[in-house]
Amino acid sequence: MKIATFNVNGIKARLDALCDWLDSAHPDVAVLQEIKSEDAPFPREMIEDRGYIVETHGQKSFNGVAILSKLPLEDITRGLPGDDGDTQARWIEATVVGKTALRVCGLYLPNGNPVELDADGLPVAGGKYAYKLAWMARQRARAADLLAAEMPFLMAGDYNIIPQAEDAKRPDVWRADALFRLESRDAFRQLVNLGLTDAFRARVQGPGHYSFWDYQAGAWNRDDGIRIDHVLLSPQAADLLRDAGIDRDIRGRDKPSDHVPVWVDLDL
DNA sequence: ATGGCCGGTGGAACCGGA
Fold first, then answer.
1. Under 8 Å between Cβ of A212 and A256
2. Between the CA of A14 and the C1' of B9, what is the distance in angstroms?
3. What's the pLDDT tens digit per position in A160-190?
């Protein structure tokens, strides 16, 4: 079973590119981020025509996530637990019903910039960086709950985290950025240390593997990228890992997103 | 040439992204 994550940066602007990718990569399940659409106007027909069920968790203008699946979905939930006041559409979950049930979490983790710190160097409450770190604590709590339930699961999406220096072409320019600050990497490592596996790094080592290239400054042509889209696997899911990869070539096609798809193949 | 963009909104600039 091939499961992919793709930050499309606007579903309306990316519909043709998304369908071209679905036709060439044929994932069984795809989680999307930054659909930038409410649920009702989401353009579902061209995706459904390709055999996918479409479940969205959208909002106007910003954020928004979705799950596309060729297999039946059950128990769909929207929103990351832990803060009823959080109205940003960044989390969707569903159980993919195959021969073994797999819980799939699709996520769009907050960017966190600009980083605002107080005199003690702590994130300013109410600021975007504090929101990012609090969101990651909620994600960690959700992962702990799913681990306790002992159902195989994965958490796939745009993490807005550069895990290691080798995951950036120019790590030094990212040192103070919310994507690479120590607190951000610590939070990501705390999540992984619950027992999750970074699927891509279980298959591919070394530098030069990116999932995002900025539209600005010729980043793609200079291969000035960062690896920020990840698939984390629960122990039971990691035992089923057959392969993982990044569909880098998508970035060079017409009207690309600034992100490319990242995928795993599980023996399911 | 060391700067260079893009999508959504709303119908012109501006916000947000990373």
1. no
2. 17
3. 999 999 999 999 999 999 999 999 999 999 9
Nucleotide nearest to A8 (CA to C1'): B7
Residues with CB under 7 A from strand B: A 7, 9-13, 34, 36-37, 60-62, 110-111, 113, 128, 158, 160, 179, 212, 214-218, 222, 226, 228, 255, 258-259
- Please give the domain boundaries of chain A with CATH numbers for all domains: 2-266 (3.60.10.10)
Is the entire prediction scored with pTM above 0.70? yes
Please report, rounded to whole angstroms, the spatial distance between the CA atom of protein residue A217 and the C1' atom of nucleotide B11: 29
Report chain B positions within 7 A of protein CB atoms. 3-9, 16-18
Q: Give the HSE-up count for residue A172: Cα atoms under 13 Å, Cβ half-sphere.
A: 0
**Cα gap A129→A178, rounded to integer Å:** 7
